[in-house]
Model the fold of this input.
Amino acid sequence: MSGEESQWLTVLIAVLGGAIRVGTPFLFVSLGECLTEKSGRINLGLEGNLIMGAMAGYGVAWITGSAWLGVLAAGATGVVLGFVHALLCQQPRVNDIAVGIALMILGTGLAFFIGKPLIQPTAPHLPALHLGAWSDNPALRAALEINALFIVGVLLAPAMAWFFKSSRWGLAIRTVGESDDAARAMGLNVNGVRMLATMAGGFLAGVGGAFLSLYYPGGWSEGLSSGQGLMAVALVIFARWDPMRCLYASLLFGGAGALGPSLQAVGVTSGYYLFNAAPYVLTLILMIAASSTKVRSGMPGSLAAR
Amino acid sequence: MKNTKLDMQQDYAIDQSRRGTLKGLAGLGLGALAGGLGIGNAVAASKVTMGFLYVGPRDDYGYNQAHFEGKSAIAKQSWIKAVDQENVPETIAVQKAMESMINLDGAQVIFPTSFGYFDPHILKIAPKYPDVMFLHCGGLYDANKHPKNVGSYFGYIDEAVYISGIVAGHTSKTGKLGYIAAIPIPQVLRNINNFTMAARSVNPKITVQVVFTGGWSNPVKEAESANSLIDQGVDVLTCHVDSPKVVVETAEKRGVFSCGYHADQSKLAPKGFLTGAEWNWSKIYLDYATMIAKKQKIPNLIRGGFKEGLVKSSPYGKVVSAKAKAHADKVRAQFMKGDFVVYQGPIKDNTGREVIPKGKSYGQTDYWLETMDWLVEGVVGKTKG
Amino acid sequence: MTFAPFLIPLTALLLSLALFGVFVSLAGADALAVYHSIYRGAFGTWFSWQNTLVSAAPLMLTALCTALPARLGLIVIGGEGAVVLGGLAAALTGLALIDTNAWLALSGMALAAMLAGGLLIGLVGWLRHSRNVNETISSLLFNYISIAILSFLVIGLLRDPETLNKPSTHHIGESHMLGALGETSIHWGFAYGVIACVILWLLYKRTTFGFAVDMIGGNLRAARLSGLPVGRNIFLVCLMGGAAAGLAGMVEVAAVHGRANTSLNAGYGYEGILIAFAARHHPLAIIPMAILFGGIRAASGLMQRDHDLPDATGLVLQGMIFILLLASEAVFARLALNKGSKA
Done:
């Protein structure tokens, strides 16, 4: 293998590794958002859940010495924020996007405030599985060093797809998401279902935050999230409310994020700002291409009705 | 709110606590400077009020923390009142924050520590407050253009980066070093060049791979850059971003060596940390406070490296060989004497162009070095985005 | 119910201040002293007032970027991108007109900025109408893309080599800078903001265009049936919103920096969203809301310095105000509903 070929191979491996490492938080937040949106509500505040989750997860892991307790704590803060979101949204004349933005600001502010003393300490990290141990290529070994949370996320996507399609609860969520009236006619508690879906979605987003602080890039700092929570909301639309497509979209997004740095590392140094913008441009193009004047398939009816 | 501005006009009479002040100064290695000159302003009422502004969080393990540590060190002095504000963006917000420190806290001297605070922000506010000194970290002062109550200070941290480069050159086995930098501005390029030339002075075959992340603080991108570089066979990483924490920790996790920057990151990487380039701001902040207390004229431009005590190296890590230490210590001693010239021709850039001809050399203080827009031979990377 | 427009924000404000007081007390600060610092930093003296008004200036303009499309039922969060592109367009125009007189240069800059910001958000509206692309998400993506374009250009093509360590475009010329209002330190941006809010209020209140917009926002199908040019109106409203935010970018360049650089990306766009919702998308209500939030911005430094609270304290207060504003609006709506059902 010539030197140049091996360089391109490492770019490929870096993009693969990046898809997994960078994509995991996107995966959790987008699955959480998918669940919430299926019930007919948009929660734009998941960025706040992500940041609060990252901070709380890191703090609890540092205090208790257990990274997994940190993950649980991150999920729990997400549940609390999800509860507030759902509670406010079920009031008359309250806009769910406004509540989302408010919770994003509050969550970010609280996380930065409470997280001040957590910037310096080093908390235990989540363990990784060495799936690349068979390879003698160190780059591939590193790319296949996979965090257990990623595997949970990968399993969660088909599970959620099955849940929506075949379970009674999934049907209830979809019905609520399609139409309030139909759901009421079936005897469903519309607000109750939405509340649970938003809280569960918040849990997942919080766990996504814990991945950031407890695994990759690791550590708590105020610049930790660069809008992953917001972008995950875009990914759900891009994935047309399908959990499996959320998985693919998150991987694609993670890989696109890794492309810029890895190209520079092999000496392709032009236009890195444009490479950095690649994920956003890509999403926009795909959104435009996938859309039409008709309501998109998979879109919950009560979202489309607005 | 005490009116410290009025207090300032009182005479700084000698009082009992003078001895305590002197002791404190000596503890910081400044006894000689303060000794015998009678700093008599240690009356609580006539404190020197100093205001600090940071562009990021004050505990970022990096640039802003280095300034915050400097501020904290001097705030212990009983005759200094130090106020600070973090996360001040380089917008009109910094103008307002400076004015607020002057008007509401009675600050007599302001330290806006981010490069982008100077033009237009300091230049706009300084003429309005001729009694207040505005001392900017960055070394941009020009006596012909700028108001008298403005000054600059900066450290030649590239000297300490050169020391890191020597240690990196001795330690690397693959001959590939990695540099993760924010954006290609002269300060950054000069550090990269120093690091590269130092490493190549050990082994001329060494190359330095550069990745620009495009921003001063983006942990995910920094981690991704570190991983990509390590995948390419890089075995020593260093960086020039606001917070080196992620880079140093990622290097440790992947089992490669790292050199720190801005502040001491040695405890983040107990196995692979080599050394690092650090600021030593407490010295200069105390010098300034002392000058103000003694009503001395404050020089408009203070610059310096190892010799002046403005920069230092982090302690060597466990893995640093005796040979590397000896080499690095020797060069540092030459910097201390002021007779080490980094930019001595012939020097080619990485496109093969001769930038400094044979026989020509540029000393540390030469302004030309501060306009650097090229990367030296051995660096893989481009200066244009 | 006639008092509701005042009662709702007032109740929310008092409640959130109380909650905030509890919060800072838990963090170990003296709540009363913190209130005093906020007052002193935001409204206590003429100096503080000037700080507050200067901080409010860009926020009024970016709030319009969300408030105007909201009347159509669209939620646009692209103010940040419009500020950035507006600032960039203003700087380029300012450089092209550097040899002309100040009046011409400033008018050109304002127009270019409004056009750039307006077209960006207009595109968002057009994509929504013709391709059904979610406007919230597309405007968010345009924020990131606009910032990347700005960074790319100021570090490369448009860079003034003299701006050594802070890459920026060339300077538009000291004599072409936007000055202050009279003897104050408040720049003209504040006046622009107030004027824009008043004009747009009049437009909504007094013209058939405003009526058509409210009709589209109220019932899209009915508006279509009555023959209103829905697509054109959506585009125009988004264009105006984007133009307002673009103008904020021009003010940043012309009154503060003199150049375009990455400091244009200062979060004004995001804070504008908050203000628009707090003002319930009413152009006139934006003025006091922007002043309130500008005051929190102005006072946040003092909270740090007097009480050693972190910088995020201001963000926490903003978040609390916003949440409680939404909550109290809901409570009032519920009361009104109950009253309605009883009657």
